[in-house]
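User: Hi! Is it possible to get a structure for several chains at once, not just one? Here's what I have:
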Amino acid sequence: MQLDFSAIWGHFPYLLGGAWISLQVAFLAFAGGMLLGLIFASLQAFGNRVARRCVNGYIGFFMNTPQLVQIYFIFFALPEIGVLMTPYEAVLLGMTLNAGAYLAEIQRAGFESVQVTEMEAAETMGFSRIQSIRYVIVPHIIKVLFPPLSNQYIIMTLGTSMAAIFGLEELTGRAFNINSETFRSVEIFTVTAGVYIAITFLATLSLALIGRYGFRAKMRLF
Amino acid sequence: MLETLLNEIPRFFTYYNIVFLLKALFATFLLSALGCIIGSVLGFLIAVGRNTTSRILMPLRAALIIYTEMFRRIPFLVTLMLAFFVFQALNWDLPMFSVALVTVCVIGTAFIAEIVRSGFESVHDNQWDAAYAMNFSYLQTLRYVVVPQAWKVILPPVFSFFILFIKDTALASQIGVLELTYAGKVMNNKGFSATLVFGTILVLYFSLSYPLAKFGQRLEKKLAPARNR
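Assistant: Yes, the chains can be modeled jointly so their relative placement is included. Here is the combined structure:
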């Protein structure tokens, strides 16, 4: 086997453009998933039995089926009832719905870690209700939630690679394109893997720094 | 829409189609189970290697850290394509199932190594020191002190990782491994409606993963209180 990376370097900027789209998709899906997860977590905490059952069903379904098949369903089955979507929309919708389930679970666990005694303690210290939420409850929740959320964000960045299957030209999609142009398969996928390692490492690094110095969360790099 | 779907159902759920789908479901299960078992063995060895302290083994530790950090940051699909093309370039004529299995093992090893390592870390430092004071060698410490306590911490996350892999192996359909998702694509290409086919596939994945996930939760609850520091 002979490796020849020289044919690849000309395509490198094109590949990096794909990395930007990957990051975009991951960020949008994460933001949407956070919102969805927040709604679900609040429904689980404050909703009546029917609402709780529905949310549990949703989370159970989305956590126990593959994201790929969920997007397959959105992309191939929904057109049969007249909902046509571009690959970008289908992938984004699928990832958002999927992330909603996982992020709801994470946020629920975070909310449950707060205890009533904390509110009472704040009241004893003469904090008003808003003050105790602002200075006691929210910092606690963020500190607990930040590590698993950043972990999930990295997992979702890696998950965007399956968008390539639906013809979306993000990092892996562009790797497939360059592959069919140059046929230097091993080289191109090695470089792609390197780009993934680089962007997720940068994301972990910056999230760990923000978490440690911004919210005093316990985070580590290795 | 609903009418055509209802018309298709008897044509879809014939004996041979059901056997085909169940075989594909078994392939999915086999792929993730084998990957997890082999990954557990190799991951355990890596964790043991990473925990060594002697100076001579420094390069080994560095290599193991690079390995685990690398393969936890490459998407499944990219590792799969890489394995596929490397075997092609080496002219090894492996069946597609083996290529996917190698990928699953490589990734599983990296993730499980990390789980096992954090399991080792859950055993308090004092216990390591006490074993050292008793003149236990490193391997003896692991065998008689650490592993008997750490396995309760290690087992639940390894099990949930196995369930995660049942879902991740859906990507193996991309290189043509005959597992559940690929079976769905085949059925869809035969002309069955995508709603019916992928709906069935989703239900099948759910019926495999959900009981295992429930079992994993029970396992975790059962083992958790026994944990002591």
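The longest helix of chain A spans residues 12-46. The interface with chain B takes residues 1, 60-61, 63-70, 72-73, 76-77, 79-81, 154, 158-162, 164-165, 172, 175, 185-186, 189-190, 192-193, 196-197, 200-201, 222 of chain A (CB under 8 Å).

User: Great, thank you!
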